[in-house]
Automatic annotation (TrEMBL):
The lineage of its organism: Bacteria, Pseudomonadati, Bacteroidota, Sphingobacteriia, Sphingobacteriales. The chain crosses the membrane at residues 7-27, 33-52, 59-76, 96-120. It comes from Mucilaginibacter psychrotolerans. This is Uncharacterized protein. Keywords: Membrane, Transmembrane, Transmembrane helix.
Length: 130
């Protein structure tokens, strides 16, 4: 299996586990699971960074997008099955809402991956005069 696919699998497992843990914690501790969205963004950036370091910029952005797609489909279903506390928001989306969410989250994850990739590229530049 290529490194790219290993990163996809590790990333999807990571975001799935994160979704499961936050769903359980939000229900048990009675807080809105949306507060943990920033954790998802960090995961997207991290995998964008890691894939860029190991492969290239395109792989970094694509890896984050794949993880975002997984998060907005399987991850959302995990949260629903584990009855995540979503506050006053009814967690029963229409097909249109689900598709729009998938598109938006995947695009935002790709953007986070680009940020992680940029950090990876910037951190490997040689210092001039040093």
């Amino acid at each position: 299996m290529s490194l790219k696919y290993k990163l996809y699998l590790i990333g999807c497992f990571t975001i799935g586990a994160f979704d499961a843990l936050t769903a359980i914690a939000s229900r048990q501790l009675n807080f809105n699971s949306a507060y943990f969205a920033v954790g998802s963004f960090i995961i997207y950036c991290f995998f964008g960074f890691w894939a860029t370091k190991k492969i290239n910029l395109k792989a970094g952005v694509l890896t984050a997008a794949v993880i975002g797609f997984f998060d907005s489909t399987v991850g959302w279903k995990i949260s629903m099955l584990l009855k995540a506390n979503t506050g006053h928001i009814k967690n029963d989306p229409t097909v249109v809402a689900w598709i729009l969410t998938i598109i938006i989250v995947t695009a935002f994850a790709a953007l986070c991956g680009l940020i992680g990739a940029a950090i990876a590229k910037y951190s490997t530049r040689k210092k001039v005069g040093g």
